[in-house]
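Morning, I've got a small favour to ask if you have a moment. I owe you a coffee for this, so here goes:

…
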Amino acid sequence: MSKINQAYDFIFNGIQQGAFKPGYLLKERDIAKELDISRTPVREAFRKLEENGLVTFIPYRGVSISAYSKKEIIQLYRVRIALEVLAAEICAEQKNKNLIIQLRNILDLAEDATKREKIIEIRNINRKFHNAIIEFTNNPFLVNKLRDLQAKIDLCMVRSLSNTGRPSNTLEEHKLIALALKNNDKSKAKELIKFHIEKSLENVLLNYK
């Protein structure tokens, strides 16, 4: 792995794990020291992250984790809805026993994390649930597009899951989605995925005035 990719992955994973939250100011020197590399590859990683919309260069201050506007979040979630509804449709159209087994295991983990109120853990498990459906489509174009969106979605999701009652509601919505997929009910699966992501968006926007 190149040093640029090493720095990129360190920051990207920090975003996904919730260590770097929207507005967090990244220090080139500190990251270089943490990874025992020079500052040049860190600078290049910052540029790649900016191209992907994950960081923002702030004059005279440095680089911060992107904090999206209300309009940008709505636009992001509309694209997410379109792609994930398509993924649900594809999965509901085929034999998906292995997917259902995988989703059941993920739901068991989610239930435990929800009881313990571990927000970051819940978010990571939720990502696994959605990724399982996406990857089961076996459509590389769809998978890659949604991967591009994932870290941006992660920046928003902690806001959503931090709202009272949202983790338990998310768990129930996921259970219904899994059931619709198990029954190969394409119409219901699409409807439930759309509803679920719309509710997630509503909860994210509760934190915006």
Notes: The chain has two domains: 3-65, 70-205.
